[in-house]
Amino acid sequence: MSVAKKRKIVDENRKYSEEWEEKHYETKHNDYLKFSSEVKQSKLREFTSQLKTQQKMFSSALQQPSNIVKASYSVSFLIAKKMKKFSDGEFVKECLEAVAKDILPDKNKLFSNISLSRQTVCRRINDISNEIIVKLRDRIQDFKYFSIAFDESTDISDTAQLVIFVRGVNESFQITEEMLKLISLKGTTKGEDIFHAVENNLDLEIISGISTDGAPAMVGKEKGAIKLLIDKIESTRKTNNFWKRDDLFIIHCLIHQQNLCSQVLSMNHVMQVVIETVNYIRSHALPHRQFKEFLKELDSEYGDVVYFSHVRWLSRGKCLKRFYELRHEIDLFMNDKQKPVLELSNDEWLLDLCFLVDIKKLLLFEFQLKNNNVQHFPLLNELKNSKHIDSIKYAQEIRKLIAAFESRFTNLDKYKKIFEVYSSPFHTDVNSAPEYLQMELIDLQCNNELKHIFETSKSKIDFYNINITKEHFPNLRNLAQKVVSAFGSTYTCESFFSKMKFAKDKSRTNLTDENLQHQLRCANTSISIDLKKLSERVEKQISH
């Protein structure tokens, strides 16, 4: 028969009695009864001091692993930012141990205890990424307005990756621009697929703008992702007297459109030669090294040509200009390689190259070229005395370019007044401004003190935050918050995909979509993370 357990005090609802403590003292510690009160007080202080010493010793013992864990997080964060392999952590640890052995031999064990295995680095990066997500969600909760930019590209394993960036502003005009999500589209990449991926990760109630490229899946009139998003916004957004449907900024990447406009020029014969020549020099290791050495020998102003790629459309202008400035050196080098560029000896081709480099202000250029004036074309102007320039031909090319710009950027006209009010509130025509802004604009333009502050202010954002209060100018303040929350291009996405191709190269084709997203989030974030607090939350143990 088992002995019944003794009931606890709490079970009998009994209160603690001081008599029990006295009885315990007399029974267990009767050796101290002979001491006087002063001696007992001295013993109490002695025991208390010993306890504090022991506690401090244990605290120090625990602090050491905490610092080691933080060091592991710090190195892992750097690996993520530089988009290096997780296994590089093991090499970094070897370097640390080698340095410690020579400089801090007595601390070598500390460096050896830092866990930087491939699995640990991966886990640390995922922890940091999740911490960024938590902080981003907190900021999103404070957004007054936000816009999104999204684009799709394929990685080295032919997986379609859709990236979504969010740019938001809170009531105090603090701007946050972060990667919201990287979504792997395993099946098709139709507009519906992109729409569902975007819609499931956003609160569309306060969205102010959408920016993307011009792919049919993005901008299709019936089933494009933007069309489906707009329909969803209209069906879910609550009644809002301030914003109308047409006020939602729908922007096809401005820089991308500029590049598309440039393709209407009949200058393919120039671009083809430049691209082939530059790509030959840059894409072959030996000719590239030889060309750079060749430029050094000639004491050239430049040390290399600028690489051109159709994907990297931002490089076009720099590539053309550098090619022209190195045309003599390129001619000598290519002849030496038995690959002569005959066009470099062709006057008409050289003039066309000069024209492409010189294009800057279209309407003025068109007018002056029609009158045989090449004053604002510095490269053409250099050659006008030695070569015949067909200025009418170039005027026609500029007319094509103007027509392309007018066609592609017409959709921005409906936002023109809003941007004018934001950028020049004291000079904009009140009668042409949106009606809901007119009364506030009149009050603002009559305030000479605010006008002086605006004209001397270094930052429009600071001006609107400090001086355009929601008590006196609620609509103007809302307008400013919406404008600063907008994306003007998908440059952020383009830059992201360049990093993605670097992070997931041919040596990392097995990198999972989840780990790729975590690493790229760390590489692109501007949110500060307290690694000390993060390290204190994990179990303080030394692994491998």
From TrEMBL:
InterPro entries: HATC_C_dom, RNaseH-like_sf. It comes from Macrosiphum euphorbiae. Residues 471-519 form the HAT C-terminal dimerisation domain. Pfam families: Dimer_Tnp_hAT. It comes from the Eukaryota. GO terms for molecular function: protein dimerization activity. This is HAT C-terminal dimerisation domain-containing protein.
